[in-house]
Structures are given as structure tokens and as C-alpha cells.
């Protein structure tokens, strides 16, 4: 055997077993040392999440191109989640419920017919309110207590606003003071053939609103600019005539939630993680919200590897149905609980759209520091801080996402349960400051495929999603160990702040 020449000064690697004890690196643990404490952020990988995203995309592709509640794609998604949970050692429960649904069968019409003719564009100039009734009305417009610029007004909230209202007319009202539901009901009671409720000053675009219960008259929502112009025209000599046409259908449908608890942990101090499982009918919903659903599945699949001391509190995973129909699944779940079970929920974490291609890393504004949206129950600020501290430690930027009630944390907050979570943006437009912090393109939508057929796996920003799931896993593990910062370590009934007023439900505005 030829001898190998040793180079002077070169390091020679030998197995530790052949080294004297004195030269074994001190970084090696002693033989009887406990193994390193596992962390969810390390256990859960992007590969885990991607596998679920691919499955959800395939389910949509083979079931009409979507996973909307009430369809086969949603039912198969439920079975997929249940199967993955059982494989991970859970005993999931399927909670069925019925909910009202509404949709447009054909495009609406809003057009001026007198004093001159002009048609307005759906989506750009106006939108149909969810649960609007059907009808094709051409009639004179009556501006109902529309306030002058800079003034307040009830504009259809009070019966006296309709004094002298001519039956068969179209009621034109400005948004504000009371719910859209009340304005539409007041208009119909006064004999209006249709209701047009336009946006407030400073609010962009048409109103994306709901009258909550099926209306018997058409209800549409123009932009503030168009609505103010119509109000001005209606007050001129000769008046204004509009055509309002809507073609809608409504009824009852069935859907289901999937709920699964860890075996370990206190049942009287539950950490509840939720994400909606359904998509809209216009696409497979991979960013919205297979990303949230997949993140929960990946975490559930690895949480059993944590030590007993890391699961002092029970962790509950929930996949909500019919979120896109107005938070139906999460609302049903919260309202179906008795007082004792509801009080056992320490907090709710919600995850909705975690990989928007042009998004931001939005942490829910639990301490209401932005003064936007509504004030969350006490303890929510502590959850926000946990997420922000984690990402700050990794030198990853965050921004605050206002609690506007558009996702499934809403029903929990309404019952005084602390809430937190993340999103990366939907149909809003990215600012220059956000583009500087997060990259991407200013002036463009956070998710260019929001509620569209192109919301597929290619639409997901995977590196963004990866770091976000790390943060979710980290905060989940911390809260599973202790909720002291949120509720002192035990769930107590929290009195809502007197100023708390839920303004939204689901994807539609209420007022």
C-alpha cells in the first residue's frame, strides 16, 4: 500500500472515536445529554405545504375548476383534510351546517335614461349588493336625505327621511349611520321600486356590500363620485330617471367545517387555529385560501413531535366552510358552542392568503395602533407582538393588517375572544412604501389573481409563504406552551370595549 503524503499544516479529519478525549470538540453533547428540543418552525417544511397545495389544485381541476362550498370540489377537499388528519393521529370531526346563499344569474344594469342616456360599468362604477332582489325598474330618482358636502345625514336610516316619498320611485341614499340592510328595508317600506346606496367621500370604488337578508327590490352601490352626481341631478328641475336591473337567486345550501384537537393539552385553555377551506366559483383558490389550509395541515402533521411540555394547552385546528359566502362556517361554529365551551377558547389565530404574489407580510393589528378597522378584544395586542417579534428577529419586514372583519376571526372577536393571525393582501393596491419594504410592484394588486381562474399554484409566492409558515409555527408552539401574555394563562370572559362595533361580515360590507 502506498503511503499518503501528509501536507504540513493541513487539517486531518478523523472520527471522534479515534480522537483523545481532550481533543473532542466541546460543542459535541455528552452521551447522556437530552436531544435538542424540537421546534415546529424547523419541523414544518415548505415541501410539506406544497404537497397539500398541489392536492387542492388537483381537486379543483377534477371538480369543475373550483372548491366552492356546496360543490363537489369542496366535499372532496373536506375528505382530503380528514384523511390527512387521521394519518397524523387525529380524530377529526365534521360539523355540518346550512346557510343562505345568493348569486347573480346575469349582469346587472345601472343606466341613466333622462335627461340624457348613459350606461354605467359594473365593477367600475357600481356593484350589486349581496342579497339584492331581482327586478328591472325604470323610474324617477328621489334623493333621500342625502347630506351636503361636509355634513352628516341619516340618508334613509329613519322613517322620517322618506316623508313625501313617491311610491314606485328609486331611492337614492348615501352610505353611513346605519346598515345597508336597514336602508334597503326602509326604502322598500316606503314603496321604493329599487334602492341605490352610494359610497362615502374618500372611499374608493363602488360599494362591496350586503343587505344580509334577501331583499324584494334591486339594490346597487355606485361609487361616491357617481352617487353624488346622481343626487345633484335628481334635485335639478326635471329630475333624473334611472334604469336599475338585477337578476339574482337565493336559497339554502349545506356545507361543513372540519375540527381536530391535539390529544395533549388543557381542554379549558384552547389555542384555536383556523383557515377557510372553500374557494370562490371563479377559480381553484390556491392562494385564497389553500395556503392557509395547507399551512394548518402541515403544522398539524408535525405538532405531535413536540415534547409534552410544549403542549400544555390543547391546540385545535379548524377548516371553515362557506367563508366566501359570508363567514358562514366560523359563525356557525362559534354560535353553536355553549358558554362553557366558548369560554374555554383562549384565542383564535386566523390565516387567510399567505402567499400573495405581490403581497406584504401583514400581521393583524391586535393593539389597534393603526386606528383602522375595529378594536380587537383584550389580549389581541400580545398576539400581534409575538408575530412581529419573531419576524423582527429574522430581519423580515412586517406591516399591520387592519381588523376589518373580512375573514373568520370576526365571529370570535364579536364574542370577546382574543384574535390574531396573518394575511398577505387580496385586491388592495400596493403602495410605494410597501414595494420598497417587501419588493414587488407599487400600484398593482397584492394578488393579481384574486378570486380568478388563475389563482393556481403558480400564483403563490413560495418563498414568502415559507417564511410566513415559519412564523405561524413558532407562535403556535409558544401559545401551546403558555398563553400568559394573552389571558394570564387561563381563559376568562373579556368585556368588549364599548367602542367595538363589528362593521363587516365576510367579504361584504354591512354598512
From TrEMBL:
A Pfam family that the UniProt record links to this protein: Peptidase_M28
InterPro entries: M28_fam (IPR045175), PA_dom_sf (IPR046450), PA_domain (IPR003137), Peptidase_M28 (IPR007484)
GO molecular function, one term: aminopeptidase activity
Domain PA: 137-230
Swiss-Prot/TrEMBL keywords: Aminopeptidase, Carboxypeptidase, Hydrolase, Protease, Signal
Sequence ranges assigned to domain Peptidase M28 in this UniProt record: 257-475
Protein origin, superkingdom: Bacteria
Transmembrane segments: none
Protein's name according to its UniProt entry: Aminopeptidase PaaP
Protein source organism: Actinomadura livida
Protein's gene: paaP
Amino acid at each position: 500500500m502506498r503511503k499518503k503524503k501528509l501536507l504540513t499544516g493541513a487539517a486531518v479529519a478523523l472520527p471522534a472515536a479515534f480522537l483523545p478525549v481532550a481533543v473532542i470538540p466541546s460543542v459535541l453533547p455528552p452521551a447522556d445529554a437530552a436531544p435538542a428540543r424540537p421546534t415546529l418552525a424547523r419541523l414544518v417544511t415548505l415541501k410539506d405545504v406544497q404537497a397539500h397545495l398541489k392536492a387542492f389544485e388537483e381537486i379543483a381541476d377534477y371538480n369543475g375548476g373550483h372548491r366552492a362550498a356546496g360543490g363537489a370540489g369542496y366535499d372532496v377537499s373536506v375528505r382530503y383534510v380528514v384523511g390527512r388528519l387521521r394519518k397524523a393521529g387525529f380524530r377529526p370531526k365534521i360539523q355540518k351546517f346550512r346557510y343562505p346563499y345568493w348569486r347573480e344569474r346575469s349582469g346587472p344594469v345601472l343606466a341613466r335614461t333622462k335627461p340624457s342616456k348613459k350606461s354605467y360599468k359594473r365593477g367600475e362604477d357600481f356593484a350589486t349588493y349581496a342579497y339584492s332582489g331581482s327586478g328591472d325598474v325604470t323610474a324617477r330618482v328621489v334623493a333621500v336625505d342625502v347630506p351636503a358636502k361636509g355634513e352628516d345625514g341619516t340618508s334613509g336610516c329613519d322613517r322620517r327621511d322618506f316623508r313625501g316619498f313617491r311610491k314606485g320611485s328609486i331611492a337614492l341614499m348615501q352610505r353611513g349611520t346605519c346598515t345597508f340592510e336597514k336602508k334597503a328595508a326602509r326604502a322598500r317600506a316606503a314603496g321604493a321600486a329599487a334602492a341605490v346606496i352610494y359610497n362615502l367621500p374618500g372611499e374608493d370604488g363602488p360599494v362591496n356590500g350586503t343587505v344580509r337578508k334577501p331583499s324584494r327590490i334591486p339594490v346597487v352601490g355606485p361609487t361616491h363620485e357617481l352617487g353624488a352626481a346622481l343626487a345633484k341631478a335628481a334635485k335639478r328641475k326635471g329630475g333624473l330617471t334611472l334604469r336599475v336591473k338585477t337578476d339574482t337567486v337565493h336559497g339554502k345550501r349545506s356545507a361543513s367545517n372540519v375540527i381536530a384537537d391535539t390529544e395533549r393539552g388543557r381542554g379549558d385553555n384552547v389555542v384555536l387555529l383556523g383557515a377557510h377551506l372553500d374557494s370562490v366559483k371563479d377559480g381553484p383558490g390556491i392562494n385564497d385560501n389553500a395556503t392557509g389550509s395547507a399551512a394548518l395541515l402541515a403544522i398539524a402533521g408535525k405538532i405531535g413531535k413536540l415534547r409534552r411540555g410544549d403542549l400544555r394547552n390543547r391546540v385545535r385546528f379548524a377548516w371553515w366552510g362557506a367563508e366566501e359566502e359570508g363567514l358562514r362556517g366560523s359563525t356557525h361554529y362559534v354560535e353553536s358552542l355553549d358558554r362553557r365551551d366558548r369560554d374555554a377558547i383562549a384565542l383564535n389565530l386566523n390565516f387567510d392568503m399567505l402567499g400573495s404574489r405581490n403581497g406584504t407580510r401583514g400581521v393583524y393589528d391586535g393593539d389597534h395602533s393603526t386606528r383602522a378597522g375595529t378594536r380587537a378584544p383584550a389580549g389581541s395586542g400580545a398576539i400581534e407582538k409575538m408575530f412581529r417579534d419573531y419576524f423582527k428577529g429574522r430581519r423580515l419586514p412586517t406591516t399591520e393588517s387592519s381588523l376589518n372583519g373580512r375573514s373568520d376571526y370576526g365571529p370570535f372577536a364579536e364574542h370577546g375572544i382574543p384574535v390574531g393571525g396573518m394575511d398577505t393582501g387580496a385586491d388592495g393596491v400596493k403602495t410605494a412604501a410597501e414595494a420598497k419594504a417587501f419588493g414587488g410592484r407599487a400600484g398593482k394588486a397584492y394578488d393579481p389573481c384574486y378570486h380568478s381562474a388563475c389563482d393556481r399554484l403558480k400564483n403563490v409566492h413560495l418563498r414568502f409563504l415559507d417564511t410566513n409558515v415559519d412564523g405561524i409555527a413558532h407562535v403556535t408552539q409558544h401559545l401551546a406552551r403558555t398563553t400568559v401574555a394573552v389571558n394570564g394563562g387561563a381563559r376568562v370572559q373579556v368585556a368588549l370595549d364599548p367602542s367595538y362595533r363589528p362593521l363587516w361580515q365576510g367579504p361584504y360590507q354591512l354598512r
